[in-house]
């Protein structure tokens, strides 16, 4: 399900399936997208931050179009204890790889991978990012 | 020395300069400038023979001058700036008629310690290249330097982040005479036809805003720049219901200087000339590294 911001409209609450993973997309070319994500985060229940949230930064291929400062994004990942992924949507190869990664994360968050919980996986991702 | 400074400054001000980053020059010598001028002149003549006509029709006699500007630097560790000038004189006109300056290129390094620190002896660090004049001459001069000194030129791109820094920094600068309005130009993405938004702010209002944001005079943080820009964006949104933060900042004009994201600069205030060159040197160095 794709939404431009949170909260999701309440009218469809009863029809909505369980949400296993929330991917917040930040376009590095748009400061507005960062502000939007920051505002939307306030509407997410705390339990999601135990491995069911991740940040996806797009548009990273073109450094010259950078309107968002990287430190702000790292800080966001730290404050919300969630991993930060990077991708360039315009390149098909990277787009496909990123989609596969997200799908794998979703499988784990939905509990379909035995032995790996959403929380342990997100800790693994954050630790490897810090290296 | 004062007079020389004035001349250089007057030469740099109020002209549109295109910016490039240059990797260190191999075996460049300040003592051989006359030789370089001669070699470059021969190269240009050869290119013209090859049919790379730079001026259609008119047969121009191009004279090359390469000089050193020892005072154009930030710290003592910086290399002296190198100025390349192309002048033309029509062969039909008498020998002592005026030569017209048709192209200028300036290699400089203002406080470029980050780059020159660990540089081996044979390399000269002049990471910032400014040109004024026809693009065709820029590419000929560039090719000669690339061939002769094994260096690499790249157009210097200025990101919206860096442009915001310039907007904040330059707004804080004191100017004697009445400052011109601050202008920010934004390009709106994802539209079938290109759309530019120009946002003009009264210089005193801009300065007043910046003064409330900046906590320590002489120091600027990313946070302060963000707050400054956010205030400008919210003000605009209140009036026009447009989120400038979703667009791309492409040009910043203040009384100090004006800068465009494609790497074009215009210096407008002599007292801040070195300061702006220092900032541009930093950008050039980070583009190289």
From TrEMBL, chain A:
Gene3D superfamilies: P-loop containing nucleotide triphosphate hydrolases. It comes from Fregata magnificens (Magnificent frigatebird). Keywords: Centromere, Chromosome, Nucleus. This is Centromere protein M. GO terms for cellular component: chromosome, centromeric region; nucleus. It holds the Pfam family CENP-M. PANTHER family: CENTROMERE PROTEIN M. Its main location: nucleus. It is found in: Chromosome, Centromere; Nucleus. InterPro entries: Centromere_Cenp-M, P-loop_NTPase.
From TrEMBL, chain B:
InterPro entries: CENP-L (IPR025204). It comes from the Eukaryota. It is found in: Chromosome, Centromere; Nucleus. Keywords: Centromere, Chromosome, Nucleus. GO terms for cellular component: chromosome, centromeric region; nucleus. Belongs to the CENP-L/IML3 family. This is Centromere protein L. It comes from Fregata magnificens.
């Amino acid at each position: 399900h794709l939404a431009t911001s949170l909260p999701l409209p309440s009218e469809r609450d009863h029809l909505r399936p369980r949400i296993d993973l929330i991917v917040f997309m930040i376009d590095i070319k748009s400061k507005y997208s960062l502000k939007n994500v920051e505002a939307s985060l306030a509407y997410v229940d705390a339990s999601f931050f135990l491995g069911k949230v991740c940040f996806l930064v797009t548009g990273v291929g073109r450094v010259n179009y950078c309107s968002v400062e990287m430190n702000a994004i790292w800080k966001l990942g730290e404050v919300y204890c969630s991993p930060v992924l990077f991708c360039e949507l315009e390149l098909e190869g990277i787009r496909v790889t990123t989609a596969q990664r997200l799908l794998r994360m979703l499988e784990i968050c939905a509990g379909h991978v035995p032995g790996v919980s959403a929380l342990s996986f997100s800790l693994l991702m954050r630790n490897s990012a810090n290296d | 020395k004062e007079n020389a400074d004035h001349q250089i400054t007057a030469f740099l001000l109020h002209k549109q300069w295109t910016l490039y980053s240059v990797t260190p020059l191999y075996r460049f010598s300040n003592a051989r400038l006359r030789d370089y001028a001669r070699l470059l002149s021969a190269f240009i003549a050869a290119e013209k023979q090859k049919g790379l006509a730079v001026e259609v029709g008119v047969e121009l006699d191009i004279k090359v001058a390469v000089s050193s500007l020892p005072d154009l630097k930030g710290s003592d560790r910086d290399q002296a700036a190198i100025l390349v000038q192309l002048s033309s004189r029509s062969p039909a006109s008498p020998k002592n008629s005026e030569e017209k300056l048709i192209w200028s290129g300036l290699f400089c390094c203002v406080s470029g310690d980050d780059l020159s620190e660990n540089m081996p002896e044979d390399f000269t660090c002049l990471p910032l290249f400014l040109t004024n004049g026809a693009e065709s001459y820029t590419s000929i001069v560039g090719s000669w330097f690339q061939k002769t000194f094994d260096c690499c030129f790249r157009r210097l791109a200025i990101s919206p982040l860096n442009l915001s820094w310039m907007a904040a920094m330059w707004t804080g600068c004191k100017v004697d005479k009445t400052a011109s309005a601050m202008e920010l130009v934004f390009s709106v993405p994802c539209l079938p036809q290109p759309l530019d938004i120009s946002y003009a702010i009264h210089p005193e209002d801009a300065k007043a805003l910046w003064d409330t944001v900046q906590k320590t005079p002489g120091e600027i943080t990313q946070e302060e720049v963000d707050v400054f820009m956010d205030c400008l964006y919210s003000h605009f949104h209140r009036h026009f219901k447009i989120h400038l933060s979703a667009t791309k900042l492409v040009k910043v004009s203040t009384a100090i200087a004006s800068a465009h994201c494609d790497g074009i600069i215009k210096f407008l205030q002599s007292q801040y000339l070195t300061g702006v060159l220092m900032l541009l040197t930093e950008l050039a160095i980070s583009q190289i590294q």
